[in-house]
Amino acid sequence: MTNPITVIAPIKLAAGKTEADLLAASDKFQKEFANSQPGLIRRELVRKGDGEYLDIIQFQSMADADAIIEKEKESAACHAFFSVMDMSEETADASKNVDFYPSLATYS
Asked: Are the C-beta atoms of 88 and 46 separated by less than 8 Å?
């Protein structure tokens, strides 16, 4: 049995983009891509503060996370989601700080 994996991905808004833009792109990404991915348990977008957010995603396994991340490269909805994010070289290092955490126990 594999343990679920939680991914925490920091997001900073691109210049000129608003929280409403982020939510619209996130909704489109969820409907057109994420909802149809096997192995994706849940996704939550949270406000961190002042144009910064966290996308928190839980996968059934690391293999599922890897497979979905690979598919994102070809997804137009994913590209649209990324287009509202600051992907400049300065913040690219922060976006590489996507963290993967294996679950030890899950409670409902």
From this structure: no
Q: Which CATH class is domain 5-102?
A: alpha beta
CB atoms within 10 A of CB 57: 23
Whether residue 7 contacts residue 78, with contact meaning beta carbons closer than 8 Å, is answered with: no
Task: Record the pTM.
Answer: 0.87
Q: In angstroms, what is the C-alpha Rg of the chain?
A: 14
Which pLDDT score is estimated for 18?
A: 95
Domain boundaries, the chain: 5-102
**d(C-alpha 19, C-alpha 34), whole Å:** 20
Give the tens place of pLDDT for each residue, 57-76: 999 999 999 999 999 999 99
